[in-house]
Design a protein that fits this description.
By secondary structure, the protein is mainly β. The chain has two helices and 17 strands. It folds into two domains: about 30-55 and about 150-203, Carboxypeptidase-like, regulatory domain (Immunoglobulin-like); about 60-145, Sandwich (Immunoglobulin-like).
């Protein structure tokens, strides 16, 4: 009898550990997907779609915003409170980084291959969008946007986005864009089922 009980335990453990990847993914959460239409623009990229209230407000691992080919790359970078952003200069000319928004900062000017860090530790009301500028090259512009949690995505050129592994529940989905706006929308996430929410952005 004892041997049978031990055998049953072993079989049960094997069944759990050998569960299919799909079933383990379903247990972790489902995706929110959709499309963003940027009215009047040639590209639907650079819209940040995020869950307004959800667990997951921890800082991200350090991320990089590059200055390359006279551009801030990525053009739009979402982060959570406490995240360190490394500003790298990959161009052969010196670059500066400063922001006129919120607590304001000027990190100085540095040559190719060097970088400076800034910790985005404050945000009184989400989202907090920090415009990134270069005093050496006024035409350069980028955005670091502080969002409330890790459930976010940035739309691509076609407008597609996907927020993976969202726990089941009822949420409000919001969107931020450098030039356009859209009202938040409710969304219900069910275990094992993807939810779809589309946005049309306008001025």
């Amino acid at each position: 009898m004892r041997k049978f009980s031990l055998f049953a335990v072993v079989v049960g453990l094997l069944a759990i550990t050998s569960a299919s990847p799909a079933s383990r993914l379903s247990a972790a959460g489902s995706s929110i997907t959709g499309a963003v239409k940027a009215t009047g623009l040639s590209s639907n990229a650079d819209a940040i779609v995020y869950v307004q209230e959800a667990p997951g407000g921890k800082p991200l691992a350090p991320v990089t915003m590059d200055q390359r080919k006279m551009q801030f790359l990525p053009h739009v970078l979402p982060v959570t409170v406490g995240t360190t952003v490394k500003f790298l200069n990959s161009d052969p000319t010196p670059h500066n980084v400063f922001s006129p928004d919120f607590e304001k900062y000027n990190l100085g000017t540095w040559p190719q291959g060097q970088s400076k860090d800034y910790v985005f530790s404050k945000c009184a009301k989400f989202p907090c969008a920090y415009t990134q500028l270069c005093r050496v090259h006024p035409e350069m512009e980028g955005f670091v946007v502080v969002v409330p949690n890790t459930y976010f995505a940035v739309s691509d050129h076609e407008g597609h986005y996907e927020i993976p592994n969202v726990p089941p529940g009822q949420y409000v989905l919001a969107v931020w864009h450098p030039k356009l706006k859209a009202q938040p929308k409710p969304v219900t996430v069910e275990a094992g089922k993807n939810a779809t929410v589309d946005f049309v952005l306008a001025k």
